[in-house]
Amino acid sequence: MSTETPLFTPLTVGRLTLKNRAVMAPMTRGRAASTGGAPTALMADYYRQRAEAGLIVTEATAISPQGVGWVNAPGIFAPEHVQGWRPVTAAVHEAGGRIFLQLWHMGRVSHPDFLGGALPVGPSAVAAAGESTTPNGKKPYVTPRALEAEELAGIAADYAAAAKNAIEAGFDGVEIHGANGYLLDQFIRDASNRREDEYGGSIEKRWRFPLEVARAVAAAVGPERTAIRLSTVSGYNGMGDSDPHASFAYGASQLDALSLAYVHVLEARPGHMLAVAGVAPVHPRIRAEFRGPLILNGGYDRAAADAAIAEGAADAVAFGVPFLANPDLLARFRQGSALNPPDFRTFYTPGAAGYTDYPALG
Hints:
alpha/beta, eight-stranded parallel beta barrel, two-stranded antiparallel ribbon, 11 helices, globular
């Protein structure tokens, strides 16, 4: 199979020219320092191994102490975080790669065990179904405290400050995490947003805060270094929306006006663990409204990725678990080689096992 298929052609994203259109999707791995969340030398090895991707998007990274909610996940709000990320970005750049940091606030799916006993926050006092894996074991999600409207400007400022820290740490840009049932997704979708003020109710009001965050980040580091990830129909973390087609079409139209580097959409294909049956794909509505680069993610293989790009459905495709288990994923695609199977037992465990020890070809 020729390497000159659509997946292996360059793509301009902001001011960057990516060497190919295969993106490494953001994946939480839990290998940051157990105290404080500083990145480690092992993380630099992990990302360097995968620098053949046209773009790497890091694991979700907490923007503030309030946004923390995952054991051994990294942060980007303290000087030690900036210092810890610098060897990671240097390693990727030395290997010829490009890397964006994903900005994360967990909102209602954090837990008091991460927050010094304080309640997690969300758009409304509506608990998510399921459990949090806390430093003290698994515990049910609690009912969050509904954020006051007056608090939101401060959280937007936290996103902007974290974005500046990321650029200081050497990242090529940032991706705002607006997906997977975390804070901004909680505002966008009406399963979690029951507000009756200017930040809830209509689609336009539910999008208000996420758009304020996007504008704040773009103003802080430049729209060409700012992107956002969305999940349209995923039920992960108890999410849902009564009209995702209308909601995300509106959001895409507003994001288009910001001239962002890209929009990244998680919308699982049939057979993927997050696939939702009986709902028409939403990403074509986003494609129609957002004129910048669109990245799709959710169960693609090489053939499906090439087809999506060739048909104009996407400009690039993100691969998650395949990149996790195959540091040389693109070399395997080029040669038509078999892929390493992922070891699900080690996705979030400490150390190199299941992290930097997956074998490369040869």
